[in-house]
């Protein structure tokens, strides 16, 4: 058994980073950050208050005039430096991510890579931020469109991708000339502390990027403070819609709120079996089910029952063999849930599935946690005979639970998907181009997979989402991000 060295020794007391300095929170309230696999406390995070975030917003506003006058080329060069530092620290960052979140090391490495890709895209800002123009809109008169930064933007991040998600926003926001306030999840703050240390080393001017820790109070201040021009939120639908989107509308801020999900994966009888099985296992059980793109409902059509039985048997056989344990240990395939309360929540859903009449064919409550405290561990569960009206089919479970729903054909599968309140992702597995195109055309979801289990957009495409999975107009990443973080100004000029 080989366990990778832990980069965090002892218990780190987390500080905020404001105006280029590491400062203690004004709050005396702290929460323990516990490694979910070992149950050891690895850090203490301040549950900061309004004062902390006010100071960060003020610093960001003070830094804005000079930062927006810094040329795009020079701004981009800070990101080249940051990219080099991220590569140097790649493995340590991945291990920190595993220590605070629980995901296995390869999942953490994938997450760090995805984050770095956003930094790489932002380093191309001189090209990405260009406007457009037309000579002679009328004789001797020209019209140009220029894209300008707005001021201070803020990110409110979730626990499940503590490194990648803030990087969907921060690099583009700052490269386009805005300044920034980052508020990570109070459950997984360490990745952003490590990123900020590298931001400091890269030499970004004081106040351009600020880090404030906490939970509800800093968010309340971000949403009400007139010094903030826009907010990027990623988290649950309840908070995203009822708090963030609503408050930003009241205070007139730009907002993009990427929210919860309930993703359907449809397997047609003409699908390639080995590659489909491997994609399904990774989609449903990867990251212990704690992904907004995770498979939740597996949909099979009634066109070939023999095929369905074979698929289900293969899924259950493979899911039973998933090796559970500490993500820093070699050979481990699934880590723990991020916190005990998240495991309890999933256990509640398993009970609800049983009581509503679904057949629990694989019970994730029976597992072997490879000698680690079983506080947060959970095995993979598979429910069959699930109907779309059951709670486990409708609500986001956010754990390693597969619900199998049978429908008549592809038409009914698409109808079922489109009845869901959510619209984050959906996938089809098929060898028919006709099926694939129909699925892509008709399904009301932002991210579509065709023979892909986890349809995660790259940094140069928007991370989409519809219905209760997204509130706003412009998504994170890609061209959407450049639009979100800039104002279009039109100039019409004549020089008689
Ligand atoms: P969450 O909504 O509990 O928390 C998200 C952020 O909001 C945190 O920073 C938290 O401190 C803050 N917050 C929590 N309660 C608040 C309140 N009452 N007022 C103001 N701020 C508050 O979400 P989570 O549990 O950290 O993350 C999991 C959720 O995120 C899932 O629903 C998942 O689907 C979603 N998610 C969505 C995407 C996407 O792109 N659509 C990506 C990742 C995660």
Tell me about this structure.
With 496 residues, the chain is an alpha/beta fold. It has two domains: 12-259 and 469-494, Aldehyde Dehydrogenase, Chain A, domain 1, CATH 3.40.605; 263-450, 3-Layer(aba) Sandwich (Aldehyde Dehydrogenase, Chain A, domain 2). Helices cover 39% and strands 22% of the residues. It has 17 helices and 23 strands. The chain has helices at 50-69, 72-88, 90-101, 105-122, 125-128, 164-167, 170-175, 190-202, 216-224, 237-251, 273-285, 305-320, 340-355, 391-394, 410-419, 433-442, 478-484, and strands spanning 12-13, 16-18, 21-23, 30-34, 41-46, 132-138, 141-148, 152-156, 179-183, 209-211, 230-234, 254-258, 263-267, 295-301, 359-362, 381-386, 401-407, 422-423, 425-429, 447-450, 466-467, 470-472, 487-494. The strands form six sheets. The protein has a seven-stranded mixed β-sheet, with helices on both faces. The chain has a six-stranded mixed β-sheet with strand order 10-9-8-11-12-22, with helices on both faces. It has a three-stranded mixed β-sheet with strand order 1-5-4, with no helix packed on it. Helix 1 packs across helix 9, helix 2 (72-88) runs antiparallel to helix 4 (105-122) and helix 3 (90-101) packs across helix 4. The structure holds nicotinamide-adenine-dinucleotide. Nicotinamide-adenine-dinucleotide binds at residues 156-161, 165, 183, 185-186, 215-216, 219, 234-236, 239, 243, 258-261, 292, 396, 398, 424, 463, 465, 469.
């Amino acid at each position: 058994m080989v366990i990778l060295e832990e980069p965090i020794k002892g218990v780190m007391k987390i500080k905020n980073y404001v105006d280029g300095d590491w400062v203690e929170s004004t709050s005396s309230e702290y929460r323990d950050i516990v490694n979910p696999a070992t149950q050891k406390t690895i850090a203490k995070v301040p549950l900061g208050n309004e004062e902390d975030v006010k100071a960060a917003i003020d610093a960001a506003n003070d830094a804005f005039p000079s930062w927006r006058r810094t040329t795009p080329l020079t701004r981009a060069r800070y990101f080249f430096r940051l990219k080099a530092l991220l590569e140097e620290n790649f493995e340590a960052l991945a291990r920190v991510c595993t220590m605070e979140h629980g995901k296995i090391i390869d999942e953490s490495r994938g997450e760090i890579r995805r984050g770095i890709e956003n930094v790489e895209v932002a380093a191309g800002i001189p090209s990405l931020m260009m406007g457009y123009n037309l000579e002679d809109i009328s004789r001797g008169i020209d019209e140009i469109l220029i894209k300008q930064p707005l001021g201070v933007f803020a990110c409110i991040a979730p626990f499940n991708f503590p490194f990648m998600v803030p990087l969907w926003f921060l690099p583009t926001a700052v490269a386009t000339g805005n300044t920034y306030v980052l508020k990570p999840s109070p459950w997984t703050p360490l990745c952003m502390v490590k990123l900020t240390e590298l931001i400091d080393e890269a030499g970004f001017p004081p106040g351009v990027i600020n880090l404030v820790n906490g939970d509800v109070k800093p968010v309340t201040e971000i949403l009400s403070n007139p010094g903030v021009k826009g907010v990027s939120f990623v988290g649950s639908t309840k908070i995203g819609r009822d708090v963030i989107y609503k408050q930003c509308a009241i205070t007139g801020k730009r907002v993009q709120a990427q929210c919860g999900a309930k993703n359907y994966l449809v397997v047609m009888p003409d699908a390639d079996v080995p590659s489909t099985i491997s994609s399904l296992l990774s989609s449903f059980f990867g990251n212990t089910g704690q992904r907004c793109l995770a498979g939740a409902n597996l949909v099979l059509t009634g066109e070939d029952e023999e095929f369905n039985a074979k698929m289900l048997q293969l899924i259950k056989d493979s899911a039973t063999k998933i090796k559970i344990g500490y993500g820093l240990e070699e050979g481990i395939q699934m880590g723990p849930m991020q916190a005990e309360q998240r495991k309890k929540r999933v256990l509640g859903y398993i009970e609800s599935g049983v009581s509503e009449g679904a057949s629990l064919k694989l019970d994730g409550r029976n597992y072997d946690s490879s000698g680690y405290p079983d506080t947060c561990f959970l095995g993979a569960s598979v429910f069959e005979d699930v109907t779309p009206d059951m709670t486990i089919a409708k609500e986001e479970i956010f754990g390693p639970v597969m619900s199998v729903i049978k429908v008549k054909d592809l038409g009914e599968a698409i109808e079922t998907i489109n009845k869901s309140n959510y619209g984050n992702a959906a996938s089809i597995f098929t060898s028919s181009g006709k099926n694939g195109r129909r699925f892509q055309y008709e399904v009301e979801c932002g991210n579509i997979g065709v023979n892909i289990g986890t349809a995660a957009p790259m940094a140069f495409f928007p991370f989409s989402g519809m219905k209760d999975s997204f509130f706003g107009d412009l998504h994170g990443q890609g061209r959407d991000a450049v639009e979100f973080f800039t104002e279009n100004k039109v100039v019409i000029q004549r020089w008689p």
